[in-house]
Design brief:
Largest sheet: 2 strands, antiparallel
Structural class: mainly alpha
Number of helices: 9
Distance between the termini: 25 Å
Radius of gyration: 20 Å
Number of domains: 1
Helix content: over 70%
Length: 239
């Protein structure tokens, strides 16, 4: 039997075995966080720039933490790239939708129809450098998160309790989110919007801290999902 057919490749195995809920969470969160990144958050602080994408970014990283524990960092990184590909397809469909002649329902404001309609088209159309920058940043941060999560797990003697899961998730998520924010800031914000290096680093840190807060709040859910997946895989092996 040839090596290519002697065992199921990690990506195919993950796509077959990973619960649809986790895969859906990852794809949905990546699509939504890139769309909501178009809306900034008014912080009232000149050096702090945040966007509404952080409302969903925690979901992508929590999904990766669960999958890394259950399937390993390599397979999870491969699935992250698949999810990113799905996001790019959705972004392309949004682009085509923005070119379709017609009017958005929200644009029916007397005297402002044309301006609002054009603004909504631009929102869903996106900007090439933002999509490219966010894609590069996510790939780098996903790989960083997944392999760091696995490395921390190898250092923990009892890696099956909530404390171990939380340690892996919190550390890897903060580092991964920091990398994601910093790479995006350097590629996009500094290049196209004139941010200073201090602004890039400061916003990367503060953004990572806020995104970590969501991870802390929802980590019990991630732990329960992890236990369920591991138990189901164990029972399927003994069946």
């Amino acid at each position: 039997m040839s090596p290519n057919t002697s065992h199921l490749p990690e990506l195919r195995r993950l796509l077959r075995e990973a619960p649809p809920l986790i895969v859906t969470m990852m794809v949905l969160s990546i699509v939504c966080m890139n769309l909501l990144a178009n809306k900034s958050i008014a912080t009232g602080v000149s050096w702090l720039a945040l966007d509404c994408g952080l409302l969903f970014s925690w979901m992508a990283f929590l999904s990766m933490d669960v999958l890394t524990k259950c399937f390993g960092p390599k397979a999870t990184s491969q699935l992250s790239i698949v999810a990113l590909g799905a996001n790019l397809v959705v972004a392309l469909m949004f682009f085509f939708a923005s070119l379709v002649p017609g009017e958005w329902s929200a644009s029916f404001v007397e005297g402002s129809e044309g301006v609002i309609n054009a603004a909504l088209d631009e929102t869903f159309r996106g900007t090439w450098f933002i999509i490219l920058g966010s894609s590069v940043a996510f790939v780098i941060s996903a790989v960083s998160n997944n392999y760091l999560n696995a490395a921390i797990g190898q250092l923990i003697s009892d890696d099956n309790g909530f404390g171990a899961f939380a340690t892996r998730a919190y550390v890897s998520t903060f580092v991964g989110q920091f990398v994601d924010n910093l790479v995006f800031a350097l590629l996009v914000s500094r290049t196209f919007f004139g941010w200073t290096p201090v602004q890039c680093v400061t916003c990367a840190i503060t953004g990572a801290l806020l995104e970590l807060l969501f991870e802390v709040l929802f980590s019990p859910l991630g732990y329960r999902l992890t236990k369920g997946i591991l138990a189901e895989r164990a029972s399927s092996r003994t069946a």
